[in-house]
Amino acid sequence: GTNSFGACEYVQKARCVYVTVLRDPIARLVSSWRYFCGQGAENRKGWQRGWPSCLWSLADWAALQPALATIELSTVQAPTVPTPPANQSADCPLLADAPATRRLHAAAHLDAALANIHDGPVFALALETLADGLRRLARALALPLDPLAVARDTRNANRLDARPLADADLAALRDTLALDLALYAALRARHPPP
């Protein structure tokens, strides 16, 4: 789940990894805004109490979650214990955590997130190349892989190109989502489409 970073330190397995799927940050944000705000999905979860409709603009929605993936992939969320667990697997590298003294600095979160997806225990897959990522994951973990399961389509009805954004809106989102865009670009550069 979203809040499981640090759980590997408490799992008694020879190898423990975290697997996550990242999506283009702008496409993810636009999709979530359309779903939660525009459609009022999940019992108007994205609305404020008393609103007759969702009043968040796309820019407002982006400001609520400017570095969602970066912060989640850079923050150890396991309970803090005075000594490391005795069952810590030697095969499971510790997560990089944005140092507490630097957590207010965006670069610390990006550095820790990049360390986790490049050299740490996080296996990040890009949604746009999910089938290739699942093949890499299966090879890395020596898991059987059902070719039919991998062949399924991952297109989303709310994808960004469904209704293009104005250039000014896109530029503003690129600025607001700069950290997540840098993280995503690093993932895509490391694992380009086949």
Give a concise summary.
By secondary structure, the chain is mostly helical.
Largest sheet: 2 strands, parallel
| Share of residues in helices | 40-55%
Sheet with the most strands: spatial strand order: 1-2
Q: Tell me the total number of β-strands.
A: 2
C-alpha end-to-end distance: 28 Å
Using brief descriptors, characterize the structure shown:
194 residues; mainly alpha; two-stranded parallel sheet; 42% helix; 5% strand
What does it look like?
By secondary structure, the protein is mostly helical. 42% of the residues lie in helices and 5% in strands. The protein is built from nine helices and two strands, in the order E-H-H-H-H-H-E-H-H-H-H. It has helices at 25-38, 41-44, 58-64, 68-72, 106-118, 130-141, 147-150, 167-176, 178-190, and strands spanning 18-22, 122-126. A two-stranded parallel sheet has the order 1-2. Helix 3 (58-64) packs parallel to helix 8 and helix 5 packs parallel to helix 9 (178-190). It is globular. The two termini are 28 Å apart.
Question: Helix and strand layout, with pairings?
Answer:
Blueprint: E1 18-22, H1 25-38, H2 41-44, H3 58-64, H4 68-72, H5 106-118, E2 122-126, H6 130-141, H7 147-150, H8 167-176, H9 178-190
